[in-house]
Amino acid sequence: MKIAVIGGAGYIGSHTVRELLDRGHEVKVFDNLSSGLEQNLFKDAGFVKGDILHPEEIEAFLQEFKPEGLVHLAAFKAAGESMTNPEKYSVNNITGSLNILNAATAAGVKYFVFSSSAATYGAPQYMPVDEKHPTEPENYYGYTKLAIEGFLKWYDKLRGIKFAALRYFNAAGYDVKGRITGLEKNPANLIPVVMEALTGRRKELLVFGNDYDTPDGTGVRDYIHVNDLAIGHAKAFEYLQQKNESLIVNLGVQRGTSVLDIVKAAEKASGKKVPYRIVERRPGDPASLVADPSKAFELLGWKAQYSDIDTIIKTTWKAYLSNGIV
Ligand code: UD1
Q1: 33 and 14 in one domain?
Q2: Which end of the chain is more exposed for a tag (fewer CB within 10 A), N or C?
């Protein structure tokens, strides 16, 4: 299939591009390289530098390429920042997505795979969280993802575009074959922060609370390896093609890992100590957030293969080593 990947130079985007290419798809990336990296582009995929906030650029790209499928991962994702600068998230995430959607329907795109988030659920009311869980986002970032799922439902009804909204839990790790090594700029997520503390790029890891109702008191999350996420995108296209029906689905592992479990795994992989300090809880953080991924298994035949914590941490450590900053 001809597939356009919007945001394909980013962290999850580049892994998705590699997976789609490996499965024989024809892929073209559209990215403004604001957080994506040239280093993450592949020679066997096309690339157009452009901005989703310039409708004429995304229109021209899709009219010229005429893809059957599209993956949209071009978004800001810092939940904390979305609460202090909601306008930035409205413009980029919401307006940008509508520009893509309008250009996609105009260009005859049939299948739209959207990078959604577990942040659409908000504070978990039960666990593991399945897709029937109420969607009450606790941050504006999560709301932008939910709003876009709403637009997709309407465009399905009114324009017949079929979509898969993939609600990612905590994306982590690097390509198991070492083909992608571009490090995210200014990371805020736990694992890159742990890596920066290990390598002396940052003084220490601040552990946001150790008094949660969890086995060791620190926050528990469902970390999913980015190669597994990438496979999820490929399987979503297969599903859309075969069933011609839209779907919303969790991509997670149903295994909880605490902040201190991550610290221990990082120390084991690197042979170094992670300097850390316990500080106050971060506002809006749930104690624990774990997925029920059974719908992905039933409908997509998708099951995580690489998401054990050792693989996640080892592949990340290797990406840092290969950047020569250790
Ligand atoms: C966050 C966002 C989520 C978004 C995801 C991807 C919130 C509430 N959620 O998920 O909406 O989809 O990122 O970008 O912001 N931690 C520390 N110290 C740190 C960083 C994190 O202790 O410096 C802890 C957190 O408190 C949490 C765990 O590590 O318990 C994971 O945090 P993080 O990687 O930021 O992901 P989430 O908060 O789960």
Answers
A1: yes
A2: C
Q: Which letter does DSSP use for residue 54 in this model?
A: S
Residue 33, φ and ψ in degrees, nearest 5: 60, 30
Pair 1, 19: CB distance under 8 Å? no
**pLDDT tens for residues 296-316?**
999 999 999 999 999 999 999
Ligand 1 and 27: CB distance under 6 A: no
Specify whether 141 is located in the same domain as 274: no
Q: From the CA atom positions of the chain, what is the Rg in Å?
A: 19
Number of domains observed in the structure of the chain: 2
pLDDT band at 143 (very low <50, low <70, confident <90, very high): very high
DSSP per residue over 31-46, as a string? E--SSS-GGG--TTSE
Q: Which contiguous run of DSSP H or E holds residue 190?
A: helix 190-198
221 lines ligand 1 (CB under 6 A): yes
Residues 166 and 29 in one domain: yes
Query: What are the pLDDT digits (tens) for 255-279?
Result: 999 999 999 999 999 999 999 999 9
Active site residue 141: yes
Does 312 fall in a domain? yes
- 17, 3 Cβ separation under 8 angstroms: no
Residue 179, domain member (yes or no):
no
189 Cβ closer than 6 Å to some ligand 1 atom: yes
Residue 150 lies in a domain: yes
Tell me how far the alpha carbon of residue 80 lies from the centroid of ligand 1, in angstroms: 9
Residue 9: how many CB atoms within 10 A of its CB?
Answer: 28
Contact by Cβ (8 Å): 117, 66: no
